[in-house]
Amino acid sequence: MKYFSLALLWSFLLMVAATASGQTTGTFFVGGDIDKFYPVVWKDNGWFANTASELEIGRADVHRDGGNEWRGSLLAKFRYHVTNWGNGSDFIEADIHQAGSAYDFIAGWRDVTGFNNANEIIIWLRGNTSYSYTSRYAIEAPAVFDGVANPLPLTMLNEPPHTFKTSVDGYVNRQGRTIGSLYLNGIVNWTAYNWRKPLRLPTGQAIAFDAGTTKIGLGGVGNKLYLFTTDVEDASKVPNYRLIMNENGEMGIGTEPVTGFRMVVEGSLGARRIKVAQGTWADFVFHDDYKLPSLQETEAFIKVNKHLPDIPSEKEVAEKGVDVGEMNKLLLQKIEEMTLHMIKMEKRIQELESRQEK
Question: What does pTM read for this prediction?
Fold first, then answer.
């Protein structure tokens, strides 16, 4: 009888444990308006098992709720652990996959236990839509605050009132995973000098940086690296290409790279100082063997060519541009030639004045 009682007790404890840790599946409906997202409250029952809770929310049939209307599909998985009044180690990770260009189904989420022990998170879900769910741990049915099942706003201890959202929060990855900090460590050497490759994007894919209304993209295609900006989340606009670099390391800012130039810029370039490395300079004008062109020779050249000797013509500049370093050297050469002519003229004036005084 004693052994029978112990066996019965163990069976009861195992049944309780199984109930606490067993999967829960179910369906629920979020009422309200279809163009709003309403707070749905979920328990974190993995908290008491010292592990993360896992919740899947889905609707595989795109016609669910809509009959012949294409309402869209959703498969989303959440892994989370709440802080429960400051215990820490809290996080919410989401992996969202959805189809149907007309609708997003998830607008955001929040751990609401920073200053209480409610043991709950909120997930904002689109209204007038039904969902199915599976939880790793046995949990109560979600509490839906849509103004129908439960009133709005949702009030909780030491939390601001929570109501519906009208747009998706910026931290939500609408197609893929939203996680905390990511540390990547490559294993296989990629190039010489032990560069490794912990992250690789296929051609035509870009990393997106959310800078507010402006989104910044960085990706590669066609043997070129592109840095671009856009203000939309879809393919409705052509991006603005801010920087393009080709396989030779030649860059274009606001334009395509140009062969033979390390960098080209479409537009103005501002700087406090610019230093141009120049191999030669114009001081050869002061060498004893330099043949200084006479002013008569310079005048004759100008009459025929309509520009100074050694200086590129207007047509050449229009076609080829200006080499800043070389042009500074040429301009200095002309200043030095002019200086020598002025010195000669000064000497001649002094000589004439001396003669006149006599």
Answer: 0.70
